[in-house]
Design the sequence.
């Protein structure tokens, strides 16, 4: 089945067309037929498109909204300009659409068919995800307009995997009525990524779901850690919003909440402005004063000896290390730790800094294997180490496509 995977952001639309079915899932032979991204929707959009494994071509077009962007993508996929003379897919071959939806609240614990009621529920959750759910809904409306009611759409939620986190780990120690009245609790995000990494780890190692005791580290621009016990998420570092937890590109991660009022008073800012500062001007960018980009920071620290670039990297790695320690305590041990995301997959240096000084916990890496692990699935713990170390590149789109196939065909979700 050809499945169009959509991830609609505020002014962007990422897509992939993936062919999958039962046999493909069993044999990991799903095919990525095309992928791309439309940016700056609302004006002269910049569109990057690639068929199969071909290099991306970039073009521009005036696209006023998400509906226009989805139409454009579908037209490209189904016209002869997309493939080598023949279209990548016929319109009738796009049999289902899978959407990345950021917030599913407590309502959605698994991927689900989009019905009028589901759409309404996602709309109700806008209060909790004002920056994401409205755009995700636009993606759903645009796909419906372009493909009609006959093509089923499936919602795959970033929060769903974390709904198994027990109360003691998802509640905040604030007056309980804020949870009851407003849903103030840890939801966690990146759930599709953590779930994929966990699934892939089980597949690579032949581990049964019930025996999985794993820490997954999604380290990209946004970053989060997840403790996975018996296949379920039992804790994660992002919280009520994606601001909590690890140090990120521009987000502070954990801090003393009293700092908000203190900064607001000192700087004459509103709490809303401070919140924005913690989301957009903090993290690696805030500490270094240079950039949110880890690769640039590592280069600055190495080539120019920039002290604050080095410090930003150290803060980042130290925070990851602390989460590893706390999740080992939460799960009474760990079998494996898996790194993913742009930083986790590509930076041996960051992985080395994270793992350094954890040998007491049975964590030690093979330096040569770590150095060689860039963007590929590799196990890199030292001989005799108690804890397995893995790089497992994440693939959220693949999981969205597979979930979509499962929901549409009634197969069991895994
Ligand atoms: P997003 O969360 O936006 O999807 P990514 O997962 O693509 O982000 O991660 C982006 C981050 O990965 C950036 O900080 C980038 O510098 C970093 N990164 C990519 N390649 C490397 C590399 N080779 N070494 C270190 N960091 C890298």
Sequence:
């Amino acid at each position: 089945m050809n499945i169009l995977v959509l991830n609609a952001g505020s002014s962007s639309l990422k897509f992939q067309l993936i062919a999958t079915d039962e046999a493909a899932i069993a044999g990991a032979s799903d095919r990525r037929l095309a992928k791309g991204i439309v940016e700056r929707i609302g004006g002269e959009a910049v569109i990057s498109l690639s068929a199969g494994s071909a290099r991306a071509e970039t073009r521009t077009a005036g696209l006023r909204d998400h509906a226009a962007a989805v139409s454009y993508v579908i037209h490209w996929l189904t016209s002869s300009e997309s493939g080598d003379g023949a279209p990548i897919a016929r319109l009738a071959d796009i049999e289902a659409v899978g959407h990345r939806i950021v917030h599913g609240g407590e309502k959605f614990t698994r991927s689900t068919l989009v019905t009028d009621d589901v759409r309404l529920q996602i709309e109700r959750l806008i209060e909790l995800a004002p920056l994401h759910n409205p755009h995700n809904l636009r993606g759903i409306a645009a796909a419906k307009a372009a493909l009609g009611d006959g093509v089923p759409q499936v919602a795959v939620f970033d929060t769903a995997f974390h709904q198994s986190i027990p109360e003691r780990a998802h509640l905040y120690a604030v007056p309980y009525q804020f949870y009851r009245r407003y849903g103030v609790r840890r939801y966690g995000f990146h759930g599709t990524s953590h779930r994929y990494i966990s699934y892939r780890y089980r597949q690579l190692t032949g581990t049964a779901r019930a025996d999985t005791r794993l820490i997954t580290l999604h380290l990209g621009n946004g970053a989060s850690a997840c403790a996975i016990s018996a296949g379920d998420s039992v804790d994660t570092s992002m919280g009520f919003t994606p601001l909590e937890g690890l140090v990120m590109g521009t987000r502070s991660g954990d801090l003393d909440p009293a700092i908000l009022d203190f900064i607001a008073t000192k700087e004459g800012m509103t709490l809303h402005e401070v919140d924005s500062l913690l989301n957009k001007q903090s993290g690696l960018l805030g500490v270094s004063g240079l950039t949110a980009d880890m690769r640039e920071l590592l280069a600055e620290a190495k080539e120019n000896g920039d002290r604050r670039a080095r410090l930003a990297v150290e803060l980042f790695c130290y925070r990851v290390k602390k989460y590893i320690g706390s999740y080992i305590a939460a799960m009474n041990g760990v079998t494996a730790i898996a790194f993913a995301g742009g930083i986790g997959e590509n930076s041996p240096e960051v992985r080395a800094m994270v793992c350094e000084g954890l040998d007491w916990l049975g964590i030690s890496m093979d330096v040569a294997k770590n150095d060689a692990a860039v963007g590929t699935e590799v196990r890199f713990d030292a001989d005799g180490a108690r804890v397995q170390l893995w790089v497992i590149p994440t693939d959220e789109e693949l999981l969205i496509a597979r979930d979509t196939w499962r929901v549409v065909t009634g197969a069991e979700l895994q």
In short: Residues 220-222, 249, 293-295, 298, 341-343, 346-347 surround adenosine-5'-diphosphate (CB under 6 Å). The chain has a mean pLDDT of 96. Residues 208-391 form a domain with the Nucleotidyltransferase; domain 5 fold (CATH 3.30.420.40).
